């Protein structure tokens, strides 16, 4: 008997799943001779699909992996067998991988040796976008447990990689300003003015623009040691997972990005115990006003114009074509509120 599975959690996406390599499960009276016999069970999954995007690395791999390991193999060692285990990807997330398993990973695409395990699970369990539902787990794991897991992976021997003049500040809370640049969409067009406004209110501001080559232990050290974070909706806000409970987190929401902002970062922030705020921009703060009239249906009523589907075309317009120029008079009130909460957090937690 042969059963084929695609061990990737986005089962509902018909345009993604066909690209995931299948794993064949074969049952019968005989099996290949074992070359290596493992004492620990194995978990097989794919790092293909959207993997390589920082948001999807957590949403489609590490959060489902955390749920699955805790459900299927609680308090057990497990060997990770990965399809599309690209060297750069494994290197980038080596601390997380080693926290999941003390064993070297097995690259299913390039390992031709027959391995035998006492048991195996293929695929991962997901509870939805950036979420862990404790009601679906017998041991009631939550997003707080996942945050503790990340602290275990990155919290030891932190490399303090932020400017030394900020390290010993006793009076000014540190604000991380997540930055985007280039032709990527959702760029903060008046970033320097926003930075200056935050500094005038009382923050020390660190502009944070992570690259694919930025070691995650350095990003963790910076964000975990700061007191507040601001950023326009985008993959870089996945670094909000590194914030301490009680931390102030403001997500700037572009036009028509309310739903995606909520499911990607608002819920996880609240589940981790962050002080979450969002700044929904007005039409005048969007660069789309230069392309579409303010009474155009693309600006005024997307649902009436395009329907409710978040299609690739709609996503391209609102996520890739749209930049943001914040109204400083309006945003300054948010900064003042952030400062009060961040100052209180700093005095309590350091």
Describe the structure.
By secondary structure, this protein is α/β, with parallel strands linked by helices. The chain folds into two domains: 2-141, no CATH class; 165-349, Rossmann fold, CATH 3.40.50. It has eleven helices and 13 strands. It has helices at 54-72, 87-92, 94-100, 143-154, 191-201, 216-224, 258-271, 297-300, 302-306, 312-320, 328-349, and strands at residues 2-5, 23-26, 36-37, 42-46, 79-83, 106-107, 115-116, 120-122, 174-178, 204-208, 228-232, 248-253, 275-280. The strands form four sheets. The protein has a five-stranded parallel sheet, sandwiched between helices. A four-stranded parallel sheet has the order 6-5-4-8, covered by helices on one side. Helix 3 (94-100) packs across helix 4 (143-154) and helix 5 crosses helix 11 (328-349). It is globular and about 75 Å long. 32% of the residues are buried. The mean pLDDT is 89.
Walk me through the topology.
Layout lengths: L1 E4 L17 E4 L9 E2 L4 E5 L7 H19 L6 E5 L3 H6 L1 H7 L5 E2 L7 E2 L3 E3 L20 H12 L19 E5 L12 H11 L2 E5 L7 H9 L3 E5 L15 E6 L4 H14 L3 E6 L16 H4 L1 H5 L5 H9 L7 H22 L1
Helix pairs in contact: 3-4, 5-11
GO molecular function, one term: pentosyltransferase activity
Subcellular location: Golgi apparatus membrane
Protein name: Glycosyltransferase 61 catalytic domain-containing protein
């Amino acid at each position: 008997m042969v059963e084929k599975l695609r061990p990737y959690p986005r089962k509902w996406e018909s345009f993604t799943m066909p690209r995931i390599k299948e794993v064949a499960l074969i049952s019968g009276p005989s099996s290949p001779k074992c070359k290596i016999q493992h004492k620990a069970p194995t978990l097989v999954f794919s790092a293909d699909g959207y993997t390589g995007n920082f948001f999807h690395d957590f949403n489609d791999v590490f959060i489902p992996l955390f749920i699955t390991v805790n459900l299927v193999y609680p308090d057990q060692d497990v060997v990770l067998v990965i399809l599309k285990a690209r060297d750069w990807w494994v290197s980038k997330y080596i601390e997380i991988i080693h926290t999941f398993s003390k064993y070297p990973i097995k690259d299913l695409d390039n390992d031709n040796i027959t391995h035998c395990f006492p048991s195996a699970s293929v695929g991962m369990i997901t509870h939805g976008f950036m979420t862990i539902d404790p009601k679906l787990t017998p041991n009631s794991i939550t997003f707080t447990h996942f945050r503790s897991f990340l602290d275990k992976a990155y919290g030891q021997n932190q490399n303090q990689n932020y400017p030394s003049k900020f390290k010993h500040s006793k009076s000014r809370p540190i604000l991380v300003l997540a930055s985007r640049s280039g032709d990527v969409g959702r760029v903060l067009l008046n970033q320097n003015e926003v930075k200056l406004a935050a500094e005038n209110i009382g923050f020390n501001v660190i502009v944070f623009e992570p690259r694919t080559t930025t070691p995650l232990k350095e990003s963790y050290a910076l964000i975990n040691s700061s007191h507040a974070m601001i950023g326009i909706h985008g993959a870089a806000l996945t670094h909000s997972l590194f914030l301490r409970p009680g931390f102030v987190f403001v997500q700037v929401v572009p036009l028509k990005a309310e739903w995606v902002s909520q499911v990607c970062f608002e819920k996880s922030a609240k589940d981790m115990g962050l002080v979450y705020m969002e700044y929904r921009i007005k039409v005048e703060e969007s660069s789309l006003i230069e392309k579409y009239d303010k009474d155009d249906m693309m600006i005024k009523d997307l649902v009436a114009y395009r329907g409710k589907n978040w299609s690739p075309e709609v996503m391209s317009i609102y996520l890739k074509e749209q930049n943001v120029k914040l109204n400083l008079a309006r945003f300054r009130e948010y900064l003042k509120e952030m400062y009060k909460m961040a100052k209180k957090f700093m005095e309590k937690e350091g």
